[in-house]
Specification:
This protein has 10 helices and 10 strands. The chain is of the alpha/beta class and 253 residues long. The strands form 2 sheets. Strands 1, 2, 5, 6, 7, 8, 9 and 10 form an 8-stranded mixed beta sheet that branches. Strands 3-4 form a two-stranded antiparallel sheet.
Length: 253
């Protein structure tokens, strides 16, 4: 069974779209997609039936003005996240995970218990929101009497979870290789939180040895580079294209 694992990374996760384009060119479809944070958002859209080109159009049409429209500020957090969840729900062609044409799992973090949570059923929009709720920026998502935050906190590239779900052939995408240096003039509460998470995730993601891991070179981008989606997608595409032969051999195509 072929599993595709898409890692966390904020805007750098747009590279997943480029990887999906190459997977489509090879004429194969994942049996399961497991995503963490932005990987769960891109992966959830794809698993629900959206093509890579449609997701690309959605990503490249985004700018700061459109992002502001889906950001509900306040409530003790920078962003509450209700508008983002509504946006996901309106965008997804299928609303419940168990009805997706491709099996899908979003990975989140139970911040109360300090354990990861795998969301395989239920409301897809809420699962995608929970997986991408960066601590201290997004309000945690209430779930079964606990609180969920960004999946990348514990599982930036959740290969082991894909393995536990029965996948034997795993291709993972790690977009948190080298972290862009933070300029002193840009230091504030938000950039410090995100930079700390990126550094932590880049180290955690190094320990996935039992899969074919693609690593797009994204050191010149940050988690906030949403206006550079087109460039990031191209880098993801080129990274997968360079490894096309390796992917074909790995999947025995």
């Amino acid at each position: 069974m072929f599993g595709l694992v898409l890692g966390s990374g904020g805007a750098k996760g747009f590279a997943h779209i480029g990887v999906l384009k190459v997977i489509e060119e090879l004429g194969v479809k994942p049996d399961i997609i497991v995503g963490s944070s932005m990987g769960a958002i891109v992966g959830g859209l794809y698993a629900s039936g959206m093509s890579s080109s449609k997701i690309e159009s959605l990503a490249t049409s985004m700018n700061y003005k459109s992002l502001i429209k889906i950001a509900d500020f306040g409530g003790g957090y920078v962003i509450r996240g209700d508008k983002l969840e509504k946006f996901f729900r309106e965008t997804l062609p299928i609303k419940r995970i168990e009805k997706f044409p491709i099996k899908f799992a979003a990975v989140s973090t139970n911040i109360i218990a300090g354990k990861y949570v795998v969301l395989e059923r239920g409301d897809a929009a809420k699962a995608m929101r929970a997986s991408g709720s960066i601590p201290a920026i997004f309000k945690p998502v209430e779930y079964k009497r606990t609180l969920l935050v960004d999946g990348g906190v514990l599982n930036p590239v959740p290969v082991k979870i894909a393995r536990d779900l029965g996948t034997d052939l795993i291709i993972g995408v790690n977009v948190n290789g080298r972290v862009k240096k933070l300029k002193k003039k840009n230091v504030n509460t938000i950039t410090l939180v995100v930079q700390s998470i990126e550094l932590m995730e880049s180290k955690l993601a190094e320990y996935n040895k039992d899969a074919l891991i693609l690593k797009p070179r994204l050191e010149n981008f940050s988690s906030f580079s949403f206006s550079r989606a087109k460039e990031i997608i191209k880098i993801g595409y080129n990274a997968a294209k360079r490894n096309k032969g390796k992917i074909k051999r790995f999947l025995d195509l």
